[in-house]
Structures are given as structure tokens and as C-alpha cells.
């Protein structure tokens, strides 16, 4: 990706669902996030656009480069906690990494979360996803010793939280 190529962030629509599924699942395989207990196996991955929307205080953003899906990231309420959201499914194709696409996605998702009135943001990931973990730390996420109660991703081994009120 050269400097003149612009990445566009758009809300997920049904026309993005198949490409998003392929990105999420292929990147998941790359990092060993395969099977039950990992985000790429969640049922929502089959049709991301149907599981996010402002009516549910959730948003999934798709990163497009020249009209092609290169990744995405979302925000949704965490379980029954109306004041806690979850940063969900930040997955980028290898060619999109290291080019601030992840930064732009996380920044937009956290801004949306604040606008929705969430007080904290939770995420879970894998130790193998070091560049993502470093990105989360830049945004002020801190490590938890264990998963936050209610997480469904029991295959993850890194859990992080961030206050949205500072």
C-alpha cells in the first residue's frame, strides 16, 4: 500500500459479509485461533452486517482499499453489562498491517463507544497477536489477570480493559 492509496472505513453491509468472513477466518487460522472458543468461530462471522447496528449500540467497521475488504473491527455491548463494551474482531490481511489501518479502526470504534455512553471497553486476544496487543496498549488498554466474567472466548489467553471516561 503506497502513501497515496486511501483506506476507507465504512459500516458493514451485507455486501461485505462474505469477504469479512474470509478475512476473519483466514487471519484466525494464521494465528491459531481455530475452533470453539475463538472469535473466528462465532456464528456472527457468517453475516457480520446482521449483528451490528446503532440500534443495538454496536458498530462493525470494514476497511476497504480500492473497494476490496482488507479488514475490520467492531464494538458491541459486552454481555449483560450495559456500561461495558467489547472491542471485537480486529482482523487485518497481512498487506494491511503496519500501515495504521488497525489504529484507524480502533480509534473509530472507541470514539463510537464513548458516544454510546459505555464506561469501559474489554477485549480478549491471543499472545501470538503481539502487534495487536501493542496497539491496544497505545490506546490505554491494560492487562487483566483473567477473563472478565461472561467472556465466551475461552481459547484466548490475553484479556484487556480500558476506561472510556478519562
From TrEMBL:
CDD domains: NAT_SF
A matching Pfam family: Acetyltransf_1
Domain N-acetyltransferase as annotated: residue spans: 18-165
PANTHER family for the chain: FAMILY N-ACETYLTRANSFERASE, PUTATIVE (AFU_ORTHOLOGUE AFUA_2G01380)-RELATED
Name of this protein: N-acetyltransferase domain-containing protein
Organism: Vibrio hippocampi
Amino acid at each position: 500500500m503506497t502513501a497515496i492509496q486511501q483506506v476507507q472505513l465504512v459500516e458493514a453491509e451485507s455486501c461485505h459479509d462474505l469477504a469479512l468472513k474470509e478475512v476473519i477466518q483466514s487471519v484466525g487460522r494464521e494465528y491459531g485461533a481455530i475452533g470453539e472458543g475463538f472469535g473466528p468461530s462465532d456464528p456472527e462471522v457468517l453475516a457480520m452486517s446482521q449483528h451490528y447496528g446503532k440500534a443495538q449500540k454496536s458498530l462493525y467497521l470494514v476497511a476497504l482499499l480500492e473497494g476490496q475488504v482488507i479488514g475490520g473491527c467492531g464494538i458491541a455491548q459486552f454481555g449483560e453489562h450495559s456500561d461495558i463494551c467489547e472491542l471485537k474482531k480486529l482482523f487485518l490481511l497481512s498487506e494491511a498491517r503496519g500501515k495504521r489501518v488497525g489504529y484507524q479502526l480502533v480509534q473509530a470504534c472507541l470514539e463510537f463507544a464513548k458516544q454510546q455512553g459505555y464506561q469501559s471497553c474489554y477485549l480478549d486476544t491471543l499472545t501470538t497477536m503481539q502487534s495487536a496487543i501493542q496497539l491496544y496498549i497505545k490506546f490505554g488498554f491494560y492487562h487483566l489477570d483473567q477473563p472478565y466474567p461472561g467472556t465466551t472466548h475461552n481459547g484466548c489467553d490475553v484479556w484487556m480493559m480500558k476506561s472510556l471516561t478519562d
